[in-house]
Amino acid sequence: xxxxxxxxxxxxxxxxxxxxxxxxxxxxxxxxxxxxxxxxxxxxxxxxxxxxxxxxxxxxxxxxxxxxxxxxxxxxxxxxxxxxxxxxxxxxxxxxxxxxxxxxxxxxxxxxxxxxxxxxxxxxxxxxxxxxxxxxxxxxxxxxxxxxxxxxxxxxxxxxxxxxxxxxxxxxxxxxxxxxxxxxxxxxxxxxxxxxxxxxxxxxxx
Amino acid sequence: xxxxxxxxxxxxxxxxxxxxxxxxxxxxxxxxxxxxxxxxxxxxxxxxxxxxxxxxxxxxxxxxxxxxxxxxxxxxxxxxxxxxxxxxxxxxxxxxxxxxxxxxxxxxxxxxxxxxxxxxxxxxxxxxxxxxxxxxxxxxxxxxxxxxxxxxxxxxxxxxxxxxxxxxxxxxxxxxxxxxxxxxxxxxxxxxxxxxxxxxxxxxxx
DNA sequence: AGGCAAACATACTACTGAGTATGCTGTCAA
DNA sequence: TTGACAGCATACTCAGTAGTATGTTTGCCT
Lengths: 206, 206
What we know:
Two copies of one chain form a homodimer.
Chain A: H1 11-27, H2 34-41, H3 45-51, H4 55-73, H5 84-101, H6 103-114, H7 123-152, H8 161-172, H9 174-178, H10 189-203
Chain A binds a DNA duplex through helix 3.
């Protein structure tokens, strides 16, 4: 655990992950083949297997990147000087645009969340998915602590914390299920969407 | 449209659908094979293909049944004499236990909702999935109308209706993502879960 | 210049899993 | 009783896909 966990991803690897996320989103992680991903890249299998040892690892890396996106943006906006309401609101207002900016990644990680333990994975794949699980747990804890603090000081209604946490998390991820970027969409839509969801989430806690 | 849409499902067919829902839930709709479903039944492929022409149709029938479950229970509790809040609360308190009672089916339909258009489907499969889409839309409309009525008479805060609808729907389906029945679970847990979610959903609208 | 990796492309192999063709068995009507 | 059909089981076929083995090019260091 001595070394920092940044495996120095190359530009080509990032490009492959972008393509994989896009294709996995469109076709589903199981249905999509490595050849589909290669076609999306305008290249062939060889390129992908040069950088990733298996399809399972590729999928795991996509999920890991999805988790990293929000995990880099949200923690910095939390501050001890703010009230739980203010903290939670800022977290949500940061979370939603970042998720929609990297939408394909999050559509993929939700697939892996809804369906399925991976079948017959290699040790490396298991390790990566364990890391995804870990980061997910870390991210949940950020929200859990804010909710707990708010319930303690009476800002939020006292009730089952786990249920509350899951509900709030799913609520702020709801756009992942239905949002599709549109050409005729006004500039103001994303901020409006974010604030409305933040309002609803906060209201649900009172 | 003259005939009633009840294709007279046999007991054997229902048993197959139960097994398919269970296996599709555990392994994922793409990963799970027909042989897996057959093994769950303690029989072989032959039985399944005798009743269903393809894996896609089998999956579609599972989704259709999932939609039917809630669509049979929820509409009867809606009444014009009640306020929008009261109607919505009763709908949620009916929806959640029914979903958890038939959990595997709903885990499957959510998979098909998150991931993917089906690839290279037969006309029959397309027709069935269109029917699923139709029933889903019908179900959504029930909630949309109650929300709209509540916004009109001032019970609910006026805001983007579609966003509100999607958020509420996802919120009351949240347990599908995380709930797992436990042996040491008190009798009272399900009612408590339902009322807490109903409270949160209604509060989010104020 | 030249050699040597890294970064791919090409051409395979092996296997899994959907779908089919056919065989077997009980049941029920005529 | 018999034949005919529903309800399965068994034993295949065949297409698609993950993974591999091996070529080919491109930078890059000396």
